Amino acid sequence: MGRVFMVDLEGDIYICKHCKTHLSKDQDIISKTFQCTHGRAYLFNNVVNISVGVKEDRMMITGMHTVVDIFCVGCGSNVGWKYEFAHDKSQKYKEGKSVLELFKISGPHDSNDLISDGDDA
Q: How many CB atoms within 10 Å of residue 90?
């Protein structure tokens, strides 16, 4: 396997909690109302320094989606998922976007966001 080149981001950024690899910028947040198994999550327009898993259909709160898990290239930790395909027309805006789970990342988010009260997925 070749050498992995990582992107360094500037400004208010989100990083992998385990290895501090840069993942996304605060300005790339689309929504802060997402929910995951372990609490809150944010939907991002752009995420870097990740690898993707196998596509799978997953039933979520908002319906069936084809997703891939996303992993930090620095340490291999699962940090969230990426929407490949939304089966419902109203969910098409999620396609190509990534969700980072707050308990797996560090960044400028408010600590109140770690409390689970969201209703989206």
A: 9
The enclosing domain of 53 has a CATH number of 2.170.150.20
Give me the DSSP letters along 52-116: E---EEEEETTEEEEEEEEEETTT--EEEEEEEEESSGGGGGGTT-EEEEGGGEESS--GGGGS-
- 111: which strand partners? none
State which residues form the domain around 102. 13-106
**Which residue is associated with the tokens 């929504």?**
31
Q: What's the pTM?
A: 0.87
Please report whether residue 5 resides in a domain. no
The string of pLDDT tens digits covering residues 35-62 is 888 889 999 999 999 999 999 999 999 9
Question: How many alpha carbons fall within 13 Å on the CB side of residue 36?
Answer: 22
**Structural domains in the chain (count):** 1
Round to whole Å and give the CA distance between 104 and 16.
Answer: 7
What span, in angstroms and rounded, lies between the C-alpha atoms of 60 and 19? 29
